[in-house]
Amino acid sequence: MDKQGNEVGCQIMPFVQVILLYHEIHNCVSRYNHQYLHYFNPKHMKTKFYYNIHFLIPVLKPAGLVLMVFFASCFFISAMGQPQDGRKNNSPSSETFPKLIFAKIPGAPKLSDPQLLMGRTEPLISEGMGWAAPAIYDWNGDGKKDLLIGEFGSGLENKERAVGNFVRVYQNTGTDKDPKFSDYFEYVRPNRFAGSGTPLSIFTWCCLGFTPQIVDLNDDGYKDIVTGQYEQGEVTCFWGSEEGFSSGEKLPQEGNPSGKKNPNLPLTDVNSWEYWSYSTVSFGDFDGDGDYDMIVGGSALRLSKNIGSKTSPKFAYREFLLDTEGKSLRVYDPSEEELKSEKGYLEKYPAGVANAVPHVVDWDNDGVLDLLVTNGYYKNGFHAVLFFRGVNTSEGYRCEKGIPLFTAKDGSKAFPGSWLRVFVTDWNNDGVNDLLIGTSVATTNGGQFNHKLSWAWEHDTNIAKENPGLMSPDRVEAERTGNPDSEGRRYRVSEYLKEGGDPTLVHRGYVYLMLGKK
Length: 518
Description:
Elements: H1 3-39, H2 48-54, H3 57-81, E1 100-102, E2 110-111, E3 115-116, E4 125-126, E5 133-137, E6 146-150, E7 167-170, E8 186-187, E9 213-215, E10 224-228, E11 235-238, E12 249-250, H4 273-276, E13 281-284, E14 293-296, E15 302-304, E16 319-320, H5 336-341, H6 345-348, E17 357-361, E18 370-374, E19 386-388, E20 390-393, E21 396-399, E22 403-404, E23 406-408, E24 418-425, E25 434-444, E26 448-449, H7 451-454, H8 458-461, H9 473-481, H10 495-498, E27 506-514, E28 516-517
Helix pairs in contact: 1-3
């Protein structure tokens, strides 16, 4: 039985059990009545005891019906009383966030505390490596927003073998204003109505999954799905149509992302490794010519203008995005120790990180596009989400220095997990932008949210990209002992397991919602 069938079964079984309980009570009372009349027949024994108990017989037999009504009522009241998102008391949504301090940005939404997006009985998740890149799109054309979650290493949860990098769809069972979801999901496929065809996927072997951007890139009236990749640096578009989506097409860019790359050349050289590495993308019109330009992340935040047309885009050389002082945008300020650890650190990583992920939006509603930027979020000093306010100057588009959207009041980690991704939408149709944040959290013991590991920095716990709970027992033991003759010899030894870490650890992607208000 599939997951959807299991849901129906779970809903029916409690009521069936109540009916069976009534049946058993009815039979017991009937047997007792028969035996009583045999042994305490008034013709044979007219005792005080008989007259006392005989008075109760008419009451005992209907007792089963009364109990059935009672238990059924409890069941339905429980079902009705449970929040429609399926949230339970022991759900990870009840995990306590630290007190958050939100940045005061004129014109921007005032964000609420994060709330975990739930299905009927469990969180809406991604699997594989456990990274989650959320997006909103009306997948089935019913006029309601559905939730898409891009994955990295899809299928890894099944016998340790990834079969692609897919996008999950959780269809909205509520309303467009008040989205609700079941636990059931499907993968994005070419025909979105028939659900047929191979799931949409991209090639990426490290550090970056399918990160869906929803945009009408060729101005034909249909939304397209676009994503970058870690390497070779291609940007793939799945063109939208009435029926669904095309197979992936690599967008034309200046240079050759699939060509041979020299790791010794600087980031500014189109033939270098760093120029193309970690090509996360987002789109907006940054030069006012009516078509979509492309913002690229990775080790630097860069602008690639559309030098094609509104209907046939082609993207130019990736130029550094600058702040109002003419400097490259900085996502993280490395320490002196970090700068000394690698020669030419900031020349190689002008953003301060190698994994910046931009999202384009006019966050402060001033008519100029801004950037919300995330990163690996795996060590102290990293911020969950940075806001770069866009400004138009005589020298072109610039950004003010980045500020964190929120921080923890006590200085601790402000958000659980790592490898954050954001998407902006009006979740409840109140005219104010809301924020979705995907994160890779640590779970243990069959998918239970692990508070200690998820709220710690992965740099400190040594669990980055580790999923021993998906490994065979032999491989777990090999990882723990470093035995070169075992199955694990093909893999690096996990320091986490060597130090006594939980072998049931599995990363899963969660999506949190932060509602905005004016």
